[in-house]
Amino acid sequence: MNLSTLTTEKSIHPALFTDQVTPAVRGILEKSLLGEELSVEEACVLFATQGEDAQAVLDTADKVREKRVGDTGTFVITRNINFTNVCYMGCRFCNFAKEKGDKEAEFLSVEQVADRAEEAWKRGATEVCIQGGLHPDIDANYYRELIIAVKKRVPEIHIHAFSPFEIWYGCKKAKLEPEVFLSELKALGLGSMPGTAAEILDTEVRKQLTKNKLTTEEWVRIIKAAHSVGVPTTSTIMYGHVDQPIHWANHLKLLRDIQKETGGFTEFVPLGFIHYETRLFNDNPDKVRPGPTRDEHFKMHAIARLMLQGYIDNIQASWVKMGPDVATQMLRSGANDLGGTLMNESISRAAGATHGQEVFPEDMVANIHAAGFNAIQRNTKYDTVKDYGKTAFQSNRIDIVGVA
Q: Residue 214 contacts by C-beta under 8 Å, 6 or more apart in sequence?
């Protein structure tokens, strides 16, 4: 069974809309209920909604989620392995990076990474998510040898590894085009890639976040290269800093356009900016927002569901960024996946996130059941690993009216 199977029902649900919903918003939402594509301009209208209009956006996203993927909530048992926190890229939104001589600097050997992967497998993980900083001593062989070591130790585990920034770095070190380097990694056992390092796919915003060290064009180039050689990726956005709704809408449209061309995205993962320990915020508290509001979290997941429907139908809610309770509420606002149990998480924690490093499978199941969904442990490609069934649910309305 593949959980990405779509339904084709087309119908308007007037009961979703109260008399207080404005005609312009109603018209956009009715398009979504018919499965029609939304424009950037229409998405911006939805991001600006308040009160009953905003509630109608969430209720429509919940209905579209039901039509596209059913009443099923998913999660994956995985382990994050950050093999080094040494990085000289200077991304201002990140507090994870250290210099080589720092007392907190860490650089794991390939055997240490394999040790952690084996431990994860013994604890029921089907996947390891492997990422790290751009350490000056890394060469292209490190990425190759890392995959070899993990696959030798745990042949059946899925390796979900290396952001587009890391692939860009490996290509520079190897003096290879992305398609060639990625084909080599795939042959060694790379199963998929995280579509991180996207942040906001807008040049002016990226200049403020990362000095545009990995441009939008380079990110897109590497993502398309991965898809072209049969390496699927996730897709992400990091929002709530120096960005605006127009950037979010353009970002979603770009992801939709890529998916139309390649079909290689497995899911979309909104990631709220964690501001506490970052230079981006602390150096510019009057210009940089302290992460998304609660209202923006809900709208991002809901509008992503509406804009991406039929193209990227798995929308993940990050409990690491929002906390398990809010992430669970997202399941009734357009999302259908709670991501991974993780076991370790360093990057958000370094930025000041407070929601812990691990939840357990039984927690995921309980949260999915709390949303009234059938709970399924999935693998990386959204195939069913274990079906936990469904429990009764009292209400499907998540009330954000009046919440800033």
A: 164, 165, 168, 197, 206
